[in-house]
Amino acid sequence: MTTTLASELRQGFDQVAGSLPEEALVLVARARDTRRTGLAERDRLLAEIVTAYRAGPRRLWAPVILYLLAPGLIGVLRQIDDEIQEIADLWADDDPPIVEDEEEIRQFLLTEALSAAATIPIHRGGRAMKRRILMRAYKYVVRWLEREGRHHEWHCSLEAHEEHDELEEKE
Fold first, then answer.
1. Can you tell me whether residue 104 is helix, strand or coil?
2. Four-CA torsion 61, 111, 89, 131, nearest 10 degrees
3. What's the alpha-carbon Rg for the chain, to the nearest Å?
4. pTM, whole model, 2 decimals?
5. Using CB atoms within 10 A as the burial measure, which of 71, 90, 92, 167 is most buried?
6. Which alpha helices (DSSP H) does 91-157 contain, by range?
7. Mean pLDDT in the chain?
8. How far apart are CA 41 and CA 114, in angstroms?
9. Mean pLDDT of residues grouped by 10 in the chain (171 residues)?
10. CA-CA distance, 127 to 91, in Å (whole number)?
11. Distances in whole angstroms, Cα of residue 135 to Cα of each of 61, 72, 141, 150
């Protein structure tokens, strides 16, 4: 899942890179350079890119933001996956009340990351920009999963009803 996500985000960036001005490409390269660019500077550069995303066109800048957030997004997905496993292990039956479609979770995370980029305040110097975007996206995905779990508890599928009825008839 994570390797695929990283390559998909890279492909998305590669598709728009030709449409970016040269100075934007330099900005992205510096924002990705963890060896020569400090964390505070990378956050400042990300804040500049987020500002460009907000100004538009968003279709152009969204893949850039996701590409810059890719390592953090992968970490968030791993953390969410661990939490899903912990919740699933608590359930004795084969039908734990949680969304298990990895693609759906991944798409929701990407959407929430872009939503956070579009709405969170930009602090002076871009302070903690990457961390704040990732934390907001994580929080909203976890809330969504919790809602889905509660919904699943309250409503069961037709197949589950039929299985339950068949078991009762056998008894």
1. helix
2. 50
3. 20
4. 0.81
5. 71
6. 102-119, 129-154
7. 87
8. 21
9. 80 95 95 94 96 95 97 94 74 56 90 97 94 96 82 64 72 68
10. 41
11. 20, 10, 10, 23
